[in-house]
Amino acid sequence: TQLLEQSPQFLSIQEGENLTVYCNSSSVFSSLQWYRQEPGEGPVLLVTVVTGGEVKKLKRLTFQFGDARKDSSLHITAAQPGDTGLYLCAGTPGGYQKVTFGIGTKLQVIP
Amino acid sequence: NAGVTQTPKFQVLKTGQSMTLQCAQDMNHEYMSWYRQDPGMGLRLIHYSVGAGITDQGEVPNGYNVSRSTTEDFPLRLLSAAPSQTSVYFCASTGPWGETQYFGPGTRLLVL
Fold first, then answer.
1. Chain Cα centroid distance, residue A2
2. Chains A, B: CB contacts under 8 A, how many?
3. SS3 A11
4. Residue A10 near residue A104 (C-beta atoms within 8 A)
5. Cβ distance B107 to B81 under 8 Å?
6. CA–CA distance, A100 with B84 (Å, rounded to integer)
7. What percent of chain B has pLDDT over 90?
8. Exposed (0-12), middle (13-18) or buried (19+): which is A36, by Cβ within 10 Å?
9. What is the pLDDT of residue A92?
């Protein structure tokens, strides 16, 4: 079983602060996804990264895939209360093989 | 497009009762999955299907059955509910490149 470790598990910050969430594994993934989940809802895909070293930006969110495709990070600039939620990373070994999810990082942004 | 739909949204069962959680998607995806989400455990794969008539076990299959008679529907059956099956259940449908999963809104199940 390929494991994905996310850190930190909980994060409470003030509006306007920056933060980084990490997703690490000893296994190589062909792609890695980041999802955001709000209370009472299912996860929603934010981004997929597929190339080692790839950096993708989604407004104030920056996603990076490690060179060796074993880890990823999510950086949020100037966090806003609307960023509050559970952030999940998920790794795909390849094709339709079973996806592995991290436990998630619960982010709270205080106004 | 409705995407992935799940019913019911909430359910309370007594130990030993059986029930079926319904899942349907209208995106014509072949690959569908069932997960359970528990605090501190993340999303764990219960069963998955790569197409109509084909199912396989995931990480935590015990106590659950699935079938896939059509591309659209992928029901999950609890054979004899146990308190350990109290959880939030998500159905997901995977896009054509095998990377993006589209999740339903979830079913919150409480087994007393």
1. 16
2. 56
3. strand
4. no
5. no
6. 22
7. 86
8. buried
9. 81
> Which of A33, A44, A98 lies at the smallest CB-CB distance from B45?
A98
| Structure token pair of residue A108 | 């709270």
Residue B29 is encoded by which pair of tokens? 């995806």
Per-window interface: A 27-56 vs B, CB < 8 A: 31, 33, 40-45, 48, 50
Mean pLDDT by 10 residues, chain A (111 residues): 85 97 92 92 92 94 94 96 95 73 95 95
Q: Which tens digit of pLDDT belongs to each residue from B66-106?
A: 999 999 999 999 999 999 999 999 999 988 776 788 999 99
Residues of B with CB under 8 A from a CB of A: 4, 31, 33, 35, 40-45, 48, 50, 58-59, 90, 92, 94, 98-106
